[in-house]
Design brief:
heterodimer, A: alpha/beta, Rossmann fold, 20 strands, about 40% helix, B: about 180 residues, alpha+beta, Alpha-Beta Plaits, 2 domains, about 30% helix
């Protein structure tokens, strides 16, 4: 069957099992959009307000479903607007395919209107990318792009398609979705070594990262933790891998990790790190990181072994398979003394929990926890609200926490929540700050026009809280450009976009608004007024270690 | 400890592959001393030879990160004790009747050849290990080098071992030697 390039793009997407794409039309993708128009019964296109929003939506879709997210944009500014979204997906290993149009092949290199070298631009932030200059390569390229995006450690792939390639025609035969490339498997001898290390450990600690979520290894991770009686601390990306309520779950570890989680890691004698990359935000001072512990590192990617932390045992391969084999080979353990020690760590922070009626971040999140169901999605932007959410939200299923970890992209959340909601059919709660929300709030238009059930909860403190916190602690309270002093009325703003708007000055007002919004299941914004000097605690200062951890605000000298 | 490493890479000869390889060095913060690209015994496959300075960490990271590139088929360090590593230089030297014979004598000692011979200059081609080229260039300096260029190293393992037979086992075996 002979098809045009634009037809092949749409057919190939459908052939890959893709039913939803996010994007924004433009001059060099008109042909693709014409095919989307003709095939609107077979594939849904979600029009966003900005290409960046579309890229985050594709990312959120992929995070929530595990499927490849697809985004389409035109050449030039359309393509460059994807860059932040692609980099966000790259840092958090999200499978994504971005398709951009470009000027016709013979206009390339002449600085034509809306021409950019998007392939060159995205080389460092994609797993792989292409410019297709021959129509014959188009079908195979799309197939390979999906294969690369989802194989091994997933990641974004970009395909740049010049307009004349979209109009040229060639033979097309559907072949069904690309298979994943075979996964590497950890070596038997490494499993044996791991078992020996676990046998010798008195204070084992499982450090769970986003790789566990991606590998679908939540059950195995939980099972290992139970079998060897080890607590589980998570990187932010790993949070949804183990139910928050599980007796072994200690919650987030790292710069703003929960005290018991960070403290237990520091005290452990064996860290079993699964699908983590030992980011500086997670380790602090590397020379003091888990300094009494041996480290086993299981990851699908060889480049992660010894990259940030030198480990005793690097195991390269599929985490699910590796954990199953360790579980099968290891004997059940019990570490009552270790458990007792961890319980003491937990008590240290038990007293600083919320004062329920005060409009404080944890109180807001507790209300969210009260009304959300296990399958609902929690999305965030980046900043203090994100850390509060990571510390306090309850998760019971993998892929329900949609947040930008590696790149830390403010403005990620709204697009991502819309995409995640499209992918799962579930309601999404976006926890954001007034700073982050201001970055891409135009996507409220997308939520309203598509009816995406996204409830946006703004922790509105009128400042860029996280930066302000650093200025308070490390910059002599020089609040340089972090006091927003804006006059934006988020309730009216929501209404102007066609969404419901609520303002909450107290927890009970918030509870009423949140409950109503959730029941209605329509796009809504709840403006929560909180104090500008709320801190995210605990905090390990950058480059610090467990010895430097700040747990309570009164430990800080603020003179 | 800082050392010089030679890394050989077999790559699919596709559009942009050289950019991807060289960009990986800058992105990960490592420097390339030299880089050569050439065809190989296999159609559509090129061989890139990179020399870089660094410690074991830098070497391992570069090999592992480069191995992620879709075009990279095989990659391996060419160790000096088990590989032949050679480089070529063309050196244009100013000469006159007084200096000509001295230059020729030195070139002969280095088994270098004169490939362009004029009244005021000559071009000498010299091949060998980098250190040999360094030595030759040092000796030529007093005669005034008008211009020169060096190819960067190319390398093959000694014996039957071939780069195309390397696999992931090799990459996973890379360790940091602390001794």
């Amino acid at each position: 069957m002979k098809l045009s390039g634009a037809q092949i793009i749409v057919e190939a997407l459908i052939d890959q099992g893709c039913d939803t794409v996010f994007g924004y039309p433009g001059g060099q993708v008109l042909n693709i959009y014409d095919e989307l128009y003709k095939n609107s019964d077979r594939i849904t296109h979600v029009l966003t307000a900005h290409e960046q929003g579309a890229s985050h939506a594709a990312d959120g879709y992929a995070r929530a479903t595990g499927k490849v997210g697809v985004v389409i944009a035109t050449s030039g500014p359309g393509a460059t607007n994807l860059v932040t979204g692609i980099a966000t997906a790259y840092l958090d290993s999200t499978p994504m395919v971005a398709i951009t149009g470009n000027v016709p092949v013979d206009l390339i290199g002449r600085d034509s209107f809306q021409e950019v070298d998007i392939m060159g631009i995205t080389i460092p932030i994609t797993k792989h990318n292409y410019i297709v200059k021959d129509i014959k390569d188009l079908g195979p390229t799309i197939r390979e792009a999906f294969e690369i995006a989802k194989s091994g450690r997933p990641g974004p792939v970009l395909i740049d398609v010049p307009k004349d390639v979209q109009t040229a025609s060639t033979e097309w035969t559907p072949q069904g979705p690309s298979a994943k490339r075979p996964m590497a498997h950890v070596r038997d001898c490494d499993v044996e070594t791991a078992v020996r290390l676990i046998d010798n450990a008195k204070r084992p600690y499982i450090y769970c990262g986003g790789g566990v979520v991606i590998a679908g290894a939540s059950e195995e991770l939980t099972a290992l933790s139970e079998k060897i009686d080890a607590p589980v601390g998570c990187s932010m990306m790993g949070l949804s891998a183990i139910p928050t309520e599980h007796k072994n779950a200690l919650g987030m570890q790292g710069m703003h990790g929960l005290f018991a989680s960070t403290r237990s890691l520091a005290a452990s004698d064996l860290v079993i790190a699964c699908g983590v990359r030992f980011s500086d935000r997670a380790t602090g001072n590397k020379s003091k990181f888990a300094k009494d512990a041996k480290v086993i590192h299981i990851d699908i990617e060889p480049g992660e072994i010894d990259k940030n932390i030198e480990v005793q045992l690097g195991m390269v391969g599929d985490i699910k398979d590796a954990l199953s084999r360790i579980i099968a080979a290891v004997e059940s353990k019990s570490h009552p003394e270790w458990r007792e020690q961890i319980d003491k760590y937990k008590q240290k922070t038990a007293s600083i929990d919320v004062t329920p009626d005060k409009m404080r971040p944890y109180a807001i999140i507790d209300v969210i926890n009260k009304y959300t169901t296990p399958e609902m999605l929690i999305a965030t932007d980046v900043g203090q609200h994100q850390m509060w959410a990571a510390q306090r939200c309850r998760f019971s299923r993998p892929r329900t926490f949609i947040t930008s970890g590696g790149l830390g992209t403010m403005g990620f959340g709204l697009g991502a929540a819309i995409g995640a909601s499209f992918g799962t059919g579930q309601k999404a709660v976006l926890i954001t700050g007034d700073g982050s929300f201001g970055m891409n709030l135009n996507e409220l238009a997308t939520a309203v026009s598509t009816g995406a059930p996204v409830i946006t909860v703004i922790m509105n403190n009128g400042v860029l809280g996280m930066v302000r916190q650093w200025q308070t602690l490390f910059y002599d309270k020089h609040y340089s450009n972090t006091v927003l002093d804006r006059k934006t009325d988020f309730v009216k703003l929501a209404q102007a976009f066609g969404a419901d708007g609520y303002r909450a000055a107290s927890v009970s007002e918030f509870e009423t608004a949140f409950k109503t919004a959730l029941e209605k299941g329509e796009p809504a914004v709840i403006d929560c007024l909180i104090d500008k000097d709320e801190f995210v605690l605990p905090m390990t200062p950058p480059g610090g270690s467990i010895d430097d951890i700040i747990v309570r605000k009164k430990e800080i000298s603020l003179d | 400890m800082q050392k010089q490493f030679v890394i050989a890479i077999r790559v699919s000869n596709r559009f942009g592959v050289l950019t991807r390889v060289s960009a990986m060095f800058s992105r990960r913060g490592f420097n390339i001393d030299s880089l050569t690209v050439s065809p190989t015994e296999t159609d559509g496959v090129s061989r890139i030879t990179v020399t870089m300075q660094g410690d074991d960490y830098a070497r391992n990271q570069m090999i592992k990160q480069l191995s992620k590139l879709n075009e990279v088929l095989e990659i391996c360090e060419m160790k000096s004790d088990s590989s032949v590593i050679r480089e070529m230089a063309l050196v244009k030297i100013k000469c006159d009747s007084a200096t000509r014979q001295d230059i020729i004598t030195t070139a002969n000692v280095f088994r270098a050849n004169i490939i362009d011979y004029g009244t005021d200059s000559m071009v000498i081609i010299v091949t060998g290990e980098s250190t040999k080229l360094d030595a030759f260039i040092k000796l030529m300096k007093p005669f005034e080098i008008l211009e020169m260029c060096r190819t960067g190293a190319v390398a093959l393992e000694r014996g039957e071992d071939c780069l195309r037979h390397k696999d992931m086992e090799y990459i996973n075996s890379l360790k940091i030697n602390r001794e």
